[in-house]
Design goal:
Layout lengths: L10 H10 L7 H20 L2 H8 L3 H15 L4 E4 L2 E4 L1 H25 L8 E5 H6 L1 H9 L8 E5 L1 H9 L5 E5 L7 E15 L21 E4 L4 H11 L7 E5 L2 H9 L4 E5 H10 L3 E3 L7 E9 L6 H12 L4
Parallel strand pairs: 3-4, 3-5, 7-8, 7-9
Antiparallel strand pairs: 1-2, 5-11, 6-9, 6-10, 6-11
Helix pairs in contact: 1-5, 2-3, 2-4, 2-5, 3-4
Amino acid sequence: MLEFPYLFPYNHIFLLIYHILPVCKYDIQEEIMSIKTLMIFVTVYKEESITAAANKLNISQPAVSLAIRELENEYSIRLFERAGRGIQKTSAARHLYEFASHITSLYQEMDSEFKKQDQTTPLRIGFSSTIGACLMPDIIHCFTESGQVPMPYIKVDTSDRIETAILENQLDLALTEGVSSSDKMLTEPFAKEQLILVCSPSHPLAQKAKITLEDLKEERFLLREKGSQTRKLAESAFHLHDFILRPVLESTSIEAIIWGAYTNLGIAILPEHQVSGYLEKGTLFALHLQGVELKREYQIIYHQNKYLNPVMLHFMELVKSKSLP
């Protein structure tokens, strides 16, 4: 393994490019052109159009087509197929994009750092729906209040979609809950939380100090949508006890679920911090279920090839210093 100690902290960037790009049998100028070829490919992949990519890069369409052919010839693959007046990505293109998007992103970050650009590139930060509703506003306010960093791009979505955006290099990092399904993802925990069962104070079970799974057999449940980490945790925890949750309502809207519980439509399973205000006001009642573990961990996630620049590290430290409301 080659070592380049004087390139630290960009050592891993060089090694990544060194191993992924063709072996260095060319001079440095040709090696740089290989990176530019990957940049053209990434743009075509995102735009899904040779013409749009050429316009965005301010180069000719033949130059774009030539770069794509060079990649296809280099790796003996087909990247795009014609589909009507447009083009369609192949499975090989999607696989190559996983590498190329990170290589070009790392190169651009290195280039910007050494050229000392006046304005820091805004971070692209993702939040799962749950964390976006409770922690995101305060975290973003604390992160930007000094005025030393630009307002980041923010995406709030389901944990599965946020993870996909990280893998495709559409986001730099994200805050999610649950366990990542990709071995290309690195995670750093920053908080733990409890899911609880809540119902209307007028619900018959609200008269009990503690309840069991037997008490819930005939009850109606109000759950988050399929794919939500909150839903996954609840279903897996109950499944361990051979209990199948069958919702009468499932929604991406936390407010709709809370309102359903308040109006006695059924029993909701939600993160404790999202219903704490309603519990304090007496609008909802927390059921104390015995024998079922409903704790989960919140975590920062990012791609294993992502270079953690000082701004990202500062954001991550800020997140770890915050406590759940």
